[in-house]
Amino acid sequence: MRNTATNAGNYAGRPMFFVSRRFDFDNLLVSKIDRSVADVQLSTRINTITKTGKTWMLEGEGPSGKIEIETDFLMGADGDHSIVLKHLGERKVDRNNYAGAVRQYWSGVEGMHTDNLLEVYFPKSLPLSYFWIFPLPDGKANVGYGMASNYIARHHINVRKAFEELIKTDPVLIPRFKNAQPLENVKGWGIPMSGNDRKAYGDGWMLLGDAASLVCPTSGEGIGSGMISGYVAAKFLQRAFVQNDFSEKMFTHYNREIHKRLRTEEKVYRFINSIPPRVFSFGINTVLSTWLFKYWL
Ligand SMILES: Cc1cc2nc3c(=O)[nH]c(=O)nc-3n(C[C@H](O)[C@H](O)[C@H](O)COP(=O)(O)OP(=O)(O)OC[C@H]3O[C@@H](n4cnc5c(N)ncnc54)[C@H](O)[C@@H]3O)c2cc1C
Prior knowledge:
The structure is a single chain. The chain has 297 residues and is an alpha+beta fold. The chain has 10 helices and 12 strands. It has helices spanning 22-31, 83-88, 149-155, 159-169, 173-177, 223-243, 254-259, 263-274, 277-288, 291-296, and strands at 45-52, 55-62, 65-71, 74-76, 98-107, 119-121, 129-135, 140-148, 181-182, 187-192, 201-202, 205-207. The strands form 3 sheets. Strands 5, 6, 7, 8, 9 and 10 form a 6-stranded antiparallel sheet that branches. A 3-stranded antiparallel sheet has the order 1-2-3. Strand 11 (201-202) and strand 12 form a beta hairpin. The longest helix is centred in the last third of the chain and has 21 residues, at 223-243. The model is unreliable at 1-9 (pLDDT under 50). Flavin-adenine dinucleotide is lined by residues 45-46, 77-79, 83, 101, 103, 144, 189, 191, 209-211, 215, 220-224, 226.
């Protein structure tokens, strides 16, 4: 797959993917915030949330000490371990729509494609998982591995160990990593995938992104769908402001609007889960290596 992180000038078409370090990407997003309408409090953690009548009270801690925020409406865009979700009592891990993933930045991975192609591997011995090498500038790479949680639980797999084993033992990967150096410890997270239709709205609140469990289940990508949820949520909130009504009925169609763009992916993922993992693994390795598939992609 073509990536334009480092060769944007050579590729006239619209890029299919763009790779950036998370640190740089988040920094870009923060720089876009209009400070005349938003009060940005960086390095601040909300620890408790309470609701009295229609008013939310958030208490937390930041660089200048304790803070309190009072608000009529609360948007939870605080990720998989969302404190908003916990307060609402809705954080349940649904293994059929969840994945475990690890990431490690490396330098000196050999054999990277001159066009900065993104590389995705489906290890034959580990179904429902994929290993990736995504090129970054300066000869660095984002290397990672993710696996469906239902498979992890059934086969007691340690994703971190499986990742390290693949680098050391997989015949394709050994030569790629033999002179490479990791730039950080392996980092692990959960991926809450779209498919469980987590209720993402209520009286005076909405959830976005990972907090709303919106990661695309077939790719494990959640940035695009998270951003779509932000866009859609803003429209709903704008209407609520105009009518000065933040009650649940104002957000009734929010779930439908954020999920309708992910329905096809959810169906494909359900289909994948309905076939035996080894059959799927054989099928995907067979299909992906055909000339026709490569041409289509
Ligand atoms: C290893 C790995 C690789 C991935 N690769 C890709 C990829 O290549 N492409 C892609 O599209 N997606 C990828 N994803 C998924 C993607 O990272 C997430 O879907 C996306 O980051 C979700 O965005 P979000 O804003 O909802 O949550 P997050 O990115 O988790 O952001 C939540 C924010 O809330 C803050 N926060 C949390 N709790 C509190 C609190 N109590 N008080 C104050 N602030 C708080 C956090 O500090 C954080 O800044 C990957 C995920 C993993 C685990």
